[in-house]
Structures are given as structure tokens and as C-alpha cells.
Amino acid sequence: MRAKLRVNYxxxxxxxxxxxxxxxxxxxxxxxxxxxxxxxxxxxxLFVMVTLPLFGFVSDKLNAPRKVIFVISLVAVVFALSIMKxxxxxxxxxxxxLYEMFMVPILQLSDxxxxxxxxxYNYKYTKIRVFGSLGYVAGGxxxxxxxDLMGLSAMFYYIALFLILTGIIxxxxxxxxxxxxxxxxxxxxxxxxxxxxxxxxxxxGITCLTYVIGDALILFxxxxxxxxxxxxxxxxxxxxGSVTFEVIIFTFNKQIMQKIGPKKMLxxxxxxxxxxxxxxxxxxxxxxxxxxxxxxxxxxxxxLPVAYMYIIEKIPKNVNAxxxxxxxxxxxxxxxxxxxxxxxxxxxxxxxxxxxxxSFLTLLAIPLIMKLxxxxxxxxxxxxxx
Length: 386
Fold this sequence. Notes:
With 386 residues, the chain is mainly alpha-helical. It has two domains: 1-176, MFS general substrate transporter like domains (Growth Hormone, Chain: A, Up-down Bundle); 186-386, Up-down Bundle (Growth Hormone, Chain: A). Helix content is 84%, strand content 0%. It has helices spanning 2-29, 34-62, 65-83, 89-121, 125-150, 154-171, 187-194, 198-218, 221-227, 232-251, 253-260, 262-282, 286-314, 320-348, 351-361, 365-371, 377-385. The chain is globular.
């Protein structure tokens, strides 16, 4: 069972890596302007916010997450192959949004299913999730080679193949042997309770000013690498440094947290994302840009665990899931705004200017970190171990 989970993460994240690293390059090859690319890629996360809870509800209601993942994987394949058949802005706009509305929920449903199976079989989730990081790089590199050989349309055949494999492997998972009990909740009361927590609001601000804006710019990495004279395969290789740091920090997260504490981890995240953008704005070679991109892995791996720790500690247990959903929704809105703006700046000025602006914007996270109240790290690490 553990092998199936690892292989599935490897396959699905290879799809994610291929799409995120090459979609903006593909759209530019179709003649779209930077603003049009930003409009498409910035709008799609807003639509995904609708299907994420919808498919989650259907999965829980039917108690059939494996079948739901299989079905939406096949639907995503249809829309992925449709993207390569159209070329005008509005057709691309529609099919890319439809594709993401079905593709992105696979990740959330797979995470939920894997966590439940890990609990059942006493697996350590992080040792399974690390194969996703490896798959992201492998997908970028392999599809980069294919694109250099066969053209940009090859990315959609690659995506289709591994989405189908993801769906098939998921169907072979063992039964969970459990049913979910749904309770009626007062959503308005829950949200009100969550936003009374000052630390929660600060954490949203900190994550949005660090790895979230970094995530948004990943979509344009390929365009910048090609401007520097790089090849398509170099776009995939650029993710290698980022994922390497991410895997190392996640592996030793407990020891690092105990050694320096959560606030210093957040400050490291700010410094890393500042360097990511500042070095990027001055990069003149692909190798210099590789160094800049690798900083994103450090920022992500040092910020995300602390964000979840604060939510677990400061937010009442009965509304933890709602708090995380709200945080992800806020991050999606910010990510969309940054993608819109990046597309406009890319078309009318340059990506270097956007990198420079964001390098100084991220420093606004420092006063927010200073306002955070301390948390009981040892207790939270015990919860994480459980």
C-alpha cells in the first residue's frame, strides 16, 4: 500500500510540475500577451475555490474518494487535451479554467485520502509526500526534454498519460472501512470565532507575503529562463534546487524547529523569498536564476509548518479545518492578484521589475512576525508526531 501511495504522488506531482512550469510558455507561443496570460492564470484559482469544497463534499457524502478522484482525473484529461486543440484567447481561457477546476481538487482529495490511509496503516505522511516533490522535478525535466524534441504540445500528452495512471492507481487503494459522520455547523459563528484570533490574521498576512507570492511567480519562470537563453529542459531543472532545499528542511523540520523556534523560521522564510526575487531581478544567466529559484524551497519549507502550528495552537480544535480552508481561500485571492499584476508588468515592462517590487514587498512580513505571540513548540511537535 505504501508503494502505491508513493508512486501516485510521484505521478500526480509530475503532472503538476509540467503544467506549472510550462503553461505560460505555451500560452506565449500561442501569441497571447502578458496581460492575457495573467488574466487566464489569475482567474482560474478563483473558479477552483468553487470546485474544491464541492468535490470534497461529494467525496464525503458518497464515502467514495477513490471513485471521485478517478472520475475527475478522466474529466481533467479531456480538458487538458482540449487546450492543445484551440488557439484563441477565449477558448484557451475556458478550457484552462475547466482543466484546473478538475485537476487541482485531485491534490486536495489525494492528500485527505493519503492522511486517512496513513493513519490506518501507521505510515508517516511526510515520507510519502516527499515523493510528490521528487515527482514535481522529474515531471519538469522529463517533459522539458519531450518539449525540446517534439514541441510544446507534448506537455499535454504527458499530462494526460500520468493523470490516467493517477486515477487507475487510486482505484486500487484498499478500503478505508469507515464512514463519516456529518454534523450541522453554524458557519457564520465559526468564521466569527476564527477572525477573533489576531495570530490567525497575522499568519495569513505572513504566508501571503512570502511563499504565496513566490508560488504565483513560478508560473512565469519558464518565460524568464527562455529570455536568458535557456532551453525548455532548463525550465524543469530550475525546480531542482528549490525542491532539494524543500525536502531537506521538511526532513529535519522537527530538529530545526526545536533549535531556533517558529519566529526565526518565519524570518528565514522572509530572507529566502527576498533573495529569491532580488537575485532574480539581477540575474543575467540561467545558473544565477537557478540560485534565485532555489530560495523559494527554503521559504516554503520554513513558513508552511509554522503557519499550521499557529492555527493548531491558537484556533479552537473544532474549527481548525475551517480556519485552514479560509487561509487557503485568502491565499488564492492574493495569488490571483499577483498573477494578474505580473502578466501586466511582463507585457508592458519586464519580469525583472516585478521581481524587484516583490523583493521589497515581502519585507513587510517582518513587523507581522514580530507581533506574533509565542507558541508551545514541544507540545505542537508532539501533536505533529501523532
